[in-house]
Write a structure and sequence with these properties.
alpha+beta; 8-stranded mixed sheet; 5-stranded mixed sheet; 16 strands; 38% helix; binds adenosine monophosphate
């Protein structure tokens, strides 16, 4: 039988798991600081939750969703993103009765993309969402939380906040029409992939990685010329507030995001340290989406960050030291060993034993793992009903009774 992992998936262990847990802790801390409540949703949902809101012509819906038919003929999809399941959960559980609702989540997403560095088919995201306000300070608070999390985790990495405003749905529609006309005129020069998107999804052409497409996009109409006064004023206030908060940003008129539901503010945190998959975090407003999903007609805004990409940039990894390694001379002292183990567990002292009745091997392992102490269980200890505690940094040894172990370790 051949055992191999599914293409685009990865196992998380060693330094990565250390980083993942650190990321989680910083996220939990930031969430509780700003009173966001955790909301966990199932890994799969009915497929139609995603297809319409994300856009029938979006890359995710067209090519990337893991969709399968259940035994009762329902179409189910492994969640490719968190915003729509979060909204679905808020509606299902009547959480939108008290607004605004501030929620966050951490968990795996699934997209059948072409795997490469920083791009997986199963990856983990952090999501923060605010439902029920169009106050621009909600946009600011979310950007601030994102900024704090990223700078806490990646203090030495250059991260650039890109922002843009897409205006209202109507503004965006008008803009898309103009963009389609512009690209239609350049049709023969465009890459084949972009040519297919001229009418279905012209915004995506602005994201193309093809050099000729990039050049053509430089002359394309920009969204900022299409947005109405209200959106423009909101955008100006956001920029002004970011300056007051001393959060550097770049206005990026080609930042449009891949999904259909965005409007007004959109933003991304990017870095040059990651290669082509350079976006760490992205988000924006989605006024209208909650209504579209059957909820009340209230606005919303949120962001998602990729845990794998953040982890790839985290340099340091700290090995957690085990307090005590157990070293036993002979299997006849088994009962003592288990008695000590129980004592250590009850007293919250971390321990390790290699299941070897061999003092030397246990000591070598303890040195290798950089343990703080070794508790030795042998003939002398057996007859005196005491234990030898060896301090590994200076080699000192102490003869002590079991009930004194905690006091002794604490004192040292
Ligand atoms: P998106 O939902 O596409 O805006 O993605 C939000 C963030 O999730 C990105 O900025 C990435 O950090 C991360 N991300 C998206 N797709 C992938 C992927 N296929 N593999 C790893 N991380 C991803």
């Amino acid at each position: 039988m051949e055992t191999r992992k599914v293409r685009g998936t990865h196992d998380i262990y060693g330094d990565d798991i250390y980083n993942f847990n650190k990321i989680k802790n910083i996220v939990l801390n930031n969430a509780s600081l700003s009173s966001f409540k955790e909301l966990q949703t199932p890994i799969f949902e009915y497929s139609n939750l995603f297809s319409k809101p994300l856009g029938e012509h979006s890359d995710v819906v067209l090519k990337e969703m893991y969709t399968f038919k259940d035994k009762n003929d329902d179409y189910l999809t492994l969640r490719p993103e968190y915003t729509t399941p979060m909204i679905r959960a808020a509606i299902t559980n009547n959480l939108l009765n008290t607004l605004p609702l501030k929620v966050f989540g951490i968990g795996p997403m699934f997209r059948r993309e072409r795997p490469q560095k920083g791009r997986y088919r199963q990856f983990n995201q952090i999501n923060f969402e605010i439902f029920g306000t169009n106050d621009y300070l909600a946009d600011i608070e979310l950007i601030l939380i994102a900024y704090d999390i990223l700078t806490a985790l990646l203090p030495n990495i250059d991260i650039e906040l890109n922002i843009n405003s897409l205006g209202t749905k109507e503004n965006l529609k008008e803009y898309k029409n103009e963009l389609s006309k512009y690209f239609e005129n350049k049709k023969i020069e465009l890459s084949e992939e972009s040519r297919d998107k001229i009418f279905s999804n012209p915004l995506r052409i602005l994201d193309s990685k093809d050099d000729i497409d990039i050049n053509i996009s430089k002359q394309a109409p920009i969204i900022n010329d299409f947005i109405n006064k209200e959106s423009r004023d909101q955008y100006d206030l956001i920029k002004k507030t970011l300056k007051t908060l001393k959060i550097n940003f770049k206005e990026n008129p080609t930042l449009v995001r891949g999904l259909d539901y965005y409007c007004n503010t959109v933003f991304e945190f990017k870095t040059k340290s990651l290669g082509s998959q350079d976006t760490l975090l992205g988000g924006g407003r989605y006024d209208g989406l909650i209504g579209l999903l059957g909820g009340p007609d209230i606005p919303g805004i949120g962001w998602a960050a990729g845990i794998e990409r953040i982890s790839m940039l985290m340099k340091e990894s700290i090995k957690t030291k085990t307090d005590v390694h157990l070293a036993i001379f002979d299997s006849k002292f088994k009962n003592h060993l288990i008695k000590v183990t129980k004592y250590l567990r009850e007293n919250q002292i971390s321990y390790y034993w290699n299941y070897k009745y061999n003092f030397k091997k246990s000591l070598t392992k303890a040195n290798l793992e950089d343990a703080k102490y070794v508790i030795i269980i042998g003939e002398d200890e057996f007859s005196n009903d005491s234990y030898t505690l060896k301090k590994l940094d200076d080699g000192q040894q102490f003869e002590i009774k079991i009930n004194d172990i905690k006091k002794f370790i604490k004192k040292k």
